Amino acid sequence: MTRTIGRMTIGMLIATCIAPFVAYDLANGVAVGSLESQLQRSLVLTNRAIETEIERFRYLPKVVGEDARIRAVAGPDRSDASLAAANRYLETIVREAGPADLYVLDAQGITLAASNHATPESFVGHDYSFRPYFHNAILKGEGRYYAIGVTTGKPGYFLASRIDSAGKPPLVVVVKADLSPLELTWEAAGVQTAIADQWGIVFLSGNPDWKYRPLVPLGAEASGRLVAERTYEGADLAARPPILPDDASLPSAAAEGPTLMLREGKDRLLARFSTVEPDGWRVLAATSTADTAKLAGFWALAALIAGLLATGALYFLHQRAQFIRMRLRQGQLLERMVAERTQDLALEIDMHRKTEEELRRTQEGLIHSAKMAALGRMSTAIVHEVSQPLAALDATLATAGVLAGKQAAEATGERIVDARSLVKRMQRTVKHLKTFARKDASELEDVSIDTVIRNVVELAAPRAKTLCVTPAIDAEAPSPVVRAVALKLEQAMLNLLLNALDAVEGRPDPSITIRRTQDETCVAVAIVDNGSGIAPEHRGRIAEPFFTTKLTGEGLGLGLSIATTIVRECGGEIRFAEAPGGGTSATIRVPLGKRDTGRLEAAQ
Questions:
Q1: Cis amide bond preceding 478, omega within 30
Q2: What's the confidence (pLDDT) of residue 553?
Q3: Which of helix, strand or coil describes residue 262?
Q4: How far apart are CA 335 and CA 339, in angstroms?
Q5: What percentage of residues in the chain have a pLDDT greater than 70?
Q6: Do 229 and 147 form a contact (C-beta atoms < 8 A)?
Q7: Taking the mean position of all CA atoms in its chain, how far away is CA 274?
């Protein structure tokens, strides 16, 4: 398969070299065909525009010749009054109908009346017998011709009709139509359109450089006729180069001319011809092929890119096939290596799982040991707290026995009530100790922070009594709810309170304040004492495991480390700072519970 793909890659590379030329030729042919269709539509529209412009005045000479004022100037008996009436009539027709000029010739070609009789360029008295339109009108009844006016120097299209009157010589009525609006329209639109006469001389053009230029070099007959008829008097036709290439001939007067390629400066033009009858005019429409070459070049480039991409894809497949074959050879070796590594990883994972379980049990053991250590630190005070109610209970029951012997029922009942009160006191103390000492779960829950504070204060009460100090609680109602493990949070807070009690031991004015504050996200409980404080050299190490400043045997130095771990499990932190006036401020910050967080957001 690899060899097949390689041969396909070579074949595609050869095809890629050929494809741009084929694509260029096809795209150029399609584009040229589109331009030819566009030119053909343009020729149809141009022919209709020319015919429409001529048809406006086609019947005007005949209609004007039927008027009595025109017929009155025929024959030798015409008067000055009839000539004046004919001039005014022609002037009115031009003003209303809109041709350039309108005039009447006698049978010898002399102008008798004209619409411009009152202007310096008046046709009256001029001889126009040399014009072809006059000869055709006399011989055939109608004549038409395009030329530059010998009197006004302005080009126009002359339409002539013979007017016959009984017993009088014929008259010829001529209308001169101005076709320059067509030229101005083409020039404004920027289209390459032109009209050439039967000899190939361009007399109207949207390209000013083409005007009065021959399509092909003029022959002797054409030059002689143009001079004799004074068609383009004032235009130097011989000095203007032909528009068509040297090897081109004048297009025939067919209904549809051939497609030619012209060169106009640096631009190449595609040109088509059509014919306007009955004058045998050639209408030329041309357009630039620059966009055609660009389009063909684009498709050639696209074909080249597509071929290169296809070749690259095949080459990639060839390389990929070789790579896959190499990978297959390495497959068995890799599978063996993976199997061996998988077995090693399974052993490592099992060892990690056992180690993590052992660490978890060890951590729980350390936390429980820390609880027991805290209870040990309070053992003397707890024994005193329990022994006092026991001694009082013994004395109370003895008194109740004596009173019962004397049948003093009321006094005996009072003593029994006192005894029950003492028993409840001991039960409460023992209950707190049992709850604190048990191994608890680690599931986070919503906990009332004030309940935790009260439980911690009650647990540390025996120790506080021995030091003659009562912790003051500074907290405003209501109690916020935090997200924590209740017993673990109590353990961390009890450890900080016991440290505060140890710090104020021996002080003449011991003082401990538990201050609770909160913000939008957290609750802070600060335990502030007026002890000796933390030495500067010890501040960075107080939370380290096994670090302690107490005497040997008084502690392992795990209390603050475990407390810090517990608070971090609850998403909080412990901060130590120097209290105002001396002493230490230990602050526990834990996040608010879901209930209080929702209430704060609703309040905002």
A1: yes
A2: 41
A3: strand
A4: 6
A5: 72
A6: yes
A7: 51
Phi-psi region of 231 (alpha: psi -120 to 50; beta: other; left: phi over 0): alpha
Beta strand 472-474 pairing with 512-518: parallel
The Cα-based distances of 179 to 41, 42, 147, 575 in angstroms read 21, 18, 11, 102
What DSSP string describes 90-148?
Answer: HHHHHHHH--SEEEEE-TTSBEEEETTTTSTT--TT-B-TTSHHHHHHHHHSEEEEEEE
Given a cut of 90, whether residue 104 has pLDDT beyond it is yes
pLDDT recorded at residue 365: 62
Query: In angstroms, what CA-CA distances link 156 with 125, 151, 200, 328?
Result: 20, 12, 17, 90
Topology, domain 443-603: Heat Shock Protein 90 (3.30.565)
Phi, psi of 69 (to 5 degrees): -70, -30
H/E segment holding residue 212 = none
Distance from C-alpha of 331 to C-alpha of 21, rounded to nearest angstrom? 47
| 472 vs 552, more confident | 472
Neighbours of 333 (CB within 10 A): 9
Please provide the distance, in angstroms rounded to a whole number, between the alpha carbons at the two ends of the chain.
Answer: 72
Residues 260 and 36: their CA atoms lie apart, in Å, by 10
Cβ neighbours around 49 below 10 Å, total: 17
For the domain covering 60-178, report its CATH number.
3.30.450.20
- Pick from 212, 131, 205: nearest CA to 174: 131
Structure token digits, residue 125:
């008295």
Q: Are 519 and 603 in contact (CB under 8 A)?
A: no
pLDDT tens-digit profile of 144-156? 888 888 888 888 8
Statement: residue 81 has pLDDT above 80: yes
Assign domain 181-222+230-288 to its CATH architecture. Answer: 2-Layer Sandwich (3.30)
> Is the Cβ–Cβ distance between 134 and 111 less than 8 Å?
no
DSSP one-letter string for 263-325: EETTEEEEEEEEEETTTTEEEEEEEE-HHHHHHHHHHHHHHHHHHHHHHHHHHHHHHHHHHHH
Distance separating alpha carbons of residues 563 and 373, to the nearest angstrom: 13
Residue 559: Cβ-neighbour burial (10 angstroms; 0-12, 13-18, 19+) = buried
Cα 231 to Cα 377: distance, rounded to the nearest angstrom = 135
pLDDT band at 562 (very low <50, low <70, confident <90, very high): confident
Residue 604 has pLDDT above 80, yes or no: no
Residue 228 has pLDDT above 60, yes or no: yes
pTM above 0.70, yes or no: no
Band (281; pLDDT cuts 50, 70, 90): confident
Q: Which two tokens stand for residue 500?
A: 């505060």
Query: Cis before residue 278, ω within 30 degrees of 0?
Result: yes
State yes or no: pLDDT of 184 exceeds 50.
yes
Coil, strand or helix at 1: coil
